[in-house]
Amino acid sequence: MKERSIATSIVLSIVTCGIYGIYWLIVLNDEVKAAAKDDSLPTGGVVFLLTLVTCGIYGIYWSYKIGQLTAKAQADRNMPVKDNSVMYLILSIVGLSIVVYAFVQNDLNEMTKKGA
């Protein structure tokens, strides 16, 4: 896992018209999968393609699932567990997926700081 600046990632996503956001989605997916030691989600590239092909519907499901996997990774590391999957689902439904990315990145950064 690599600690990333959330503000920089959001700015880069805006400045690059979403291209960095695609990269960020792919990396977040793969890092959370590795942290949770769970293969229930496909690779980041496949998640992006499925989201694209389903006109965003898979991305909404992904937001819910990534919240669950983040909570699993926290539990595996004996950290306080924050299962935000329902909040992530709602944020995605209203079109705020970048906020989901920021929350997930924050949780990954906390895991990285703990040395887990």
Write the layout of secondary structure elements.
Layout: H1 6-15, H2 19-36, H3 44-53, H4 57-76, H5 85-93, H6 97-113
Helix pairs in contact: 1-2, 1-6, 2-3, 2-4, 2-6, 3-4, 4-5, 4-6, 5-6
Structure characterization notes:
The chain is mainly alpha-helical and 116 residues long. The chain has one domain (6-113). The protein is built from 6 helices and no strands. It has helices spanning 6-15, 19-36, 44-53, 57-76, 85-93, 97-113. α2 (19-36) packs parallel to α4 (57-76) and α3 (44-53) packs antiparallel against α4 (57-76).
Concise account of the structure shown:
With 116 residues, the chain is an all-alpha fold.
Q: Strand fraction band?
A: under 5%
**Shape by Cα distribution:** globular
Helix count? 6
Helix content: over 70%
Secondary-structure element series: HHHHHH
Spell out the key features of this protein.
mainly alpha; 116 residues
